[in-house]
Structures are given as C-alpha cells and as structure tokens.
Amino acid sequence: MVQTRRDFLKTLGIASLGMAVASCRVGAADRLPRDFKTPNRTPGDLAADESYWAGIRDLYELSDEFINIESGYYSPAVQSTIEAQIKQLRRVNKEASRYMRGVRVDEFKAAKAKLAALAGCSPDEITITRNSTEALNTIILGLKLEAGEELIYSDLEYPSMVQAIEMRAKRYGTPIRQFDIPNVPSTKEEVIEACRKAIGPKTKVMLISHMVFLNGLVPPIREICDLCHERGVEVIVDGAHAFAHVDWKVPDLHCDYYGTSLHKWLGSPLGTGMLYIKKEKIPRVWPLYAEMEKGDDSIEKFERTGTRPPHSYIGMEEAIRVHEAIGGKNKEARLRYLKNSWVSRVKELPRVKILSPITDDMSCAICSFSIEGMDPKDLADALMNRYGVFVAGLKSEYGVRVCPNLYTKPEHLDRLVMAIRELAV
Ligand SMILES: Cc1ncc(COP(=O)(O)O)c(C=O)c1O
After folding, report:
1. Closest residue by Cα to residue 138 from 348, 266, 328, 282
2. Using a 6 Å cutoff on CB, does residue 209 contact ligand 1?
3. Considering its fold, how many domains does the chain have in total?
C-alpha cells in the first residue's frame, strides 16, 4: 500500500506536533527536514518498514510513464539535491567571475571535507572528479611503473577501464594481463584464490572492482588488498557501484587507489565522482592534467582540471546530507531487501537463471538474470515495451541487470516478478 506523506510524518513521530509538521511541509514533498531523524531501529528491521521508505520515496520526483529499475547507470537525485544545484547555479550566474575568483575555492574545499568524512579518510587523500572514468584513468595512466612491471586486471572489469589499461600498454609498453575470477562464486575464498593465482613475478599492480557492473558481485576487497600487499602488489579499486551502496569506509578496504562515481548510488548530481589515493602513494601518480605548482605529494595536483561547474559539488553536499540522515547501514539493508524481494520469487522458475551471487556477503542491490532461450536485449525490450519496466539488457552471457533503489516501490517489484513469470512460461 502506498503511504501518504502524513503516514510518513507519523513514522517520524512528529505528526501530532503542529509546528514540526508545518515546517516539514514547507517545500512540499521534496524536502528532507533539517532535523530529520531516522528511527532508531536495526537496519534489518527498518528495511521492511514500507511506511518509512514511502516517505523517503516522496523526496524524489520520477517519471510515472515507466518503472525505473536501472539505477546502475545513473541514480536520480532527490529534489533537495536538485534544488541545491539550481540555487547555486543562479547564485554563480549572479556573482559570476567574482564568485569564481573568490569563495569558490573555500566552497570546493568544504565540499571535499564533507566527502572525505563520508569516505572516512582525510581531505588530503581525496579529490572530487567528474566520475569514475576520470578518477581511474588518472591512476591507470598516471601510475609510475618501472619498465617490465606488470598491471593485471580481472575479466569482470568495466570496458572503459580495460581500454585505459590497453592504452597504457600501447603508449608506455606496460605489460598487462587479464585474469579470470568466478562470476558467481560460492564463497569469497574462491575469488581470493583466483586473485592469489593471478599474481606473477612481475606483477606490480592489480585493478579490481568493488562491485562488478555486470552482476553486482562484491569481491572481498580487503582480503585481496592484504594478499596483494604481501606480494608487493598495489591495488586500484573500481568502486563505481560500491560507494554509498554498501556501507564501508576507506580504512576498511586497505586499498591504495580508489575511484567512484557519486552520481550512481549516492544520488549526487550528474558529473560528480571521487578519487582516493593513500597519502604516501600520491607521489607515485602523475596527474592527467598538467600541474607544476602544487607539491608532488599534494592531492591538489589532481585539481587543475580547468573551470568546472560549482553547482555539482554543492548539490553533492545535499546528497551526502540525505544519505547520512538515512544512514549508510539502513540504506544498504534496504537495497539488499529490495533485491531479495524479487529474486526470491523468481529464482526457482524453470527457465529463469540468476546470474549473480545472492548471499549477503557478496551482493547488495544489483542482480542479473536470464530467461532460457531469450536474448537479454530482447528480454529487456519485452520488459519495457510490454510491462513498462526499464532494466539494462547486457551481453548475452550476462543477461539483464536489475538495480532497484530507494525510490523503488514494492509494487514495482511485483510488476517485475509478474512480467518474468509471464515471459518465462
Ligand atoms: C564498474 C564501472 N566502472 C566505471 C564506470 C564508469 O562510470 P562513469 O561513467 O560514471 O565514469 C562504470 C559505469 O557504469 C562502471 O560500471
């Protein structure tokens, strides 16, 4: 049952307080009140509380012409994030060069500090990029490797990163090698073992995803980093899908380099990403864009990227506020709950094959599936054209990728399940 905003306020325990209700209503459904408090319940308990999540869903303005279960490419921002962007856009256009030459610098630093706090590291170790591609190209192309030092990468990496690696090999002669990891491992140890076997005598750096774009597999990054470090290998982590999706902090991962897109699971404005480099590794990386004034050990050497739109990182601050008000652990539990809610109803159907790991330790919201005898693109088209359900059709062996998010309604997943049942008969 869809909950009204009033029900939502009730769940916050403030419906009877006239003033609080009035202030919550200012700006209608698109505002998360500044004093918003998520009820103090266990994440597992809250994950199933539809009235709470209906209130969160009210923060979004989404098309009612189709059901969007593809937040993997881009996750829409809540209204207040969009409003923050627009407000900043207007302000910057009023103040123009005066803003750009003035408070812009401090505002960028303040936004970075908020992002660093969310990532659990020092602002001296991160910078705001446009996306994962920019962050990861910086490392892949800029890492100072000696002749003959090898870069290895798993077979489940994103094509743009593979191309960056191939370009590096062509441009600098860096030896590169792809290694296989199981798509649907039964245990985390299988992935660790595949990484262990992949390391050769010349290997100096490994690239691996924190959440595989094809099927949502979450490899055990910390264990992989530890084993790499024992063998003198550095680790670049492609976290495009993992940031603000599964709940973690940089120190948990033990990685050397990390790149992510904030416009995916954080719900930050399009064109925001993060590059993390462990402090002592900063001198090991050339920036993509020339910078000769900042010290070689300063993260700011990656920030001479030309004039950029200040509304994007100001909007990002609001996305961080909303994320923190909900709570990273609560969000992760809800996302996993949504995935489980549709998968559990279709996984036993005779022609349906689940192509992702579905245990809690190796997956969260993303899950892929196929229907025997159907090309994934045709399956995705049928879901959209016949049922109004938008998902991503991947290459044949990877099936169709389903990515629910906080705005996904239970009835959206009911429709997906109904469609799969009908298509799989
Ligand atoms: C695993 C992975 N890495 C990198 C990227 C690139 O992200 P962006 O286009 O935001 O740079 C994607 C995009 O979907 C991805 O899935």
Report:
1. 282
2. yes
3. 2
